[in-house]
Design a protein that fits this description.
Layout: H1 2-50, E1 57-61, E2 64-68, H2 70-115, H3 117-125
Antiparallel strand pairs: 1-2
Helix pairs in contact: 1-2
């Protein structure tokens, strides 16, 4: 009976580890994307600042380019920069939360394995397919 409870607990912990790992990878990927978006907006803004105000500037819309005033393009890039920074802050806090959750699940697994050394031996003898 106790053996069955330990196996059930192990399966639950294993599922939580897989789920948390997947979420953590997804958040890290989103974080990388937002950081590159932020960098692109920053670099574009820096290039726009170097141009004189009377320079013709164009905005890419699909496969066409539309004439836009420099101020409009600068406002759009500044907004993208702010949005990216806000998203990065949010994703960073999500990442920290998931890392804490992962550490907690790993501690639960260690505790479970220390309670039943036989289970630890069975897990170590299993082969991954």
């Amino acid at each position: 009976m106790a053996d069955e409870n330990i196996r059930t607990a192990f399966m639950e912990i294993q599922g939580r580890i897989i789920e948390t790992t997947g979420k953590l990878k997804q958040v890290q990927s989103q974080l990388r994307n937002k950081e590159s978006e932020k960098k692109r907006a920053y670099l574009t803004l820096e290039e726009l600042r170097q141009l004189s105000d009377d320079t013709n500037t164009y905005k890419s819309i699909g496969r066409t380019f539309v004439l836009e005033p420099k101020s409009v393009l600068m406002n759009e890039q500044e907004q993208k920069l702010k949005d990216s920074e806000a998203a990065i802050a949010s994703l960073q806090s999500s990442k920290e939360y998931l890392e804490k959750q992962m550490a907690e699940v790993e501690n639960n697994l260690r505790e479970l394995l220390s309670q039943d050394p036989g289970l630890a031996r069975q897990i170590m003898s299993m082969t991954v397919m």
